[in-house]
Design a protein that fits this description.
The protein is mostly helical. It contains three helices and two strands. It has one domain.
Length: 108
């Protein structure tokens, strides 16, 4: 997912854009998932005993993880949509060659 976000941001905004930081969202979601797993493991390891604070933290981490995963999915879908729209709009304006000359495609 992160590579799709990077590719779409580079195409839409450029490689030096501040928007490139959005590619860290899947990394944050993965880190939250690991932290949630640690909390759940500690709850399971101390089963007869109840740890309400750890359970509360695990619930908060679950909500944060879900939100960041959904944000990453939305960014991926939005980036793909933006690239598709750029491709559709750009198709009517001609094709730019590698040398930078603008050439229009004509059907005969």
């Amino acid at each position: 997912m992160s590579s799709l976000i990077i590719a779409s941001v580079q195409r839409l905004r450029g490689p030096q854009s501040r928007w490139m930081r959005l590619s860290l969202i899947p990394l944050v979601a993965g880190s939250l998932d690991y932290a949630e797993n640690v909390c759940i493991f500690s709850l399971l390891a101390t089963y007869p005993r109840r740890l309400p604070r750890v359970a509360r933290i695990a619930g908060i981490l679950t909500a944060m993880k879900t939100a960041t995963y959904l944000l990453g999915l939305a960014l991926t879908a939005g980036g793909g949509l933006g690239l598709a729209l750029r491709w559709i709009v750009g198709a009517g304006q001609g094709v730019t060659s590698r040398l930078g000359r603008n050439r229009t495609l004509r059907l005969r």
